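Name: Mitotic spindle assembly checkpoint protein MAD1
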Amino acid sequence: MLVFGSADSEARAELSTLRTEHEQLRKQLQQQQLEKEGLEAQLEERALRGDYNPATSRVLTFRDNPAAAAGSRRAGQLERLQQENAELRGRLEVLGDGAGSGLSQDAAKQISGLRSQLRAAELRTRRLKEVFGRSTQEYRQSRGAGDTIQLLENGFSARLSDLVEQYLYRQDSMPGFLAALTLRLLRDGPPAAPAPARAAARAPVRPPPPDDDDDCEIVELD
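Structure predicted for Mitotic spindle assembly checkpoint protein MAD1:
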């Protein structure tokens, strides 16, 4: 009986040792599996970036490939911009020195002319803003006083009959009409300029003169 007990104890000890070794091996396998997945992810990321292993891979590229052509164009543009920048710096230095050379005088004349054009453009813009402001104020005052505004008919306004009917006649809303007109112009573009009349074109037909008994006035529309 003692012999069997001793063998059983040894078997239990060996089983415990095997279980410990098994657990250690399982942890090592799990760790190696995680490392393997991490390496695979790194390889995939490097492959997406275009990296490769020179020891196992060799990359062949065409001499005239799109990437090289684009890089060459960018390098040429950069070199050209740097050259233009250097030339502009040189001109600025010449102008800053105030020397009485012909180049500085010509440049000063050009700058003076550009400043005059800029002042004239700013003046025109300011005058247009003033005119628009007065027109807007007059429109608001006339609408507030209950005055009636008449839309003169011409070749362009004749094509806006639907907007006139909806926003001016039905809703009595000038802002709505202007907003709808703006959206239409953005969608369709500005109206095309009318074609010039030919020399051999037929003369426009004039309306007949009014009778003496009729109290009316004929107004020609553009």
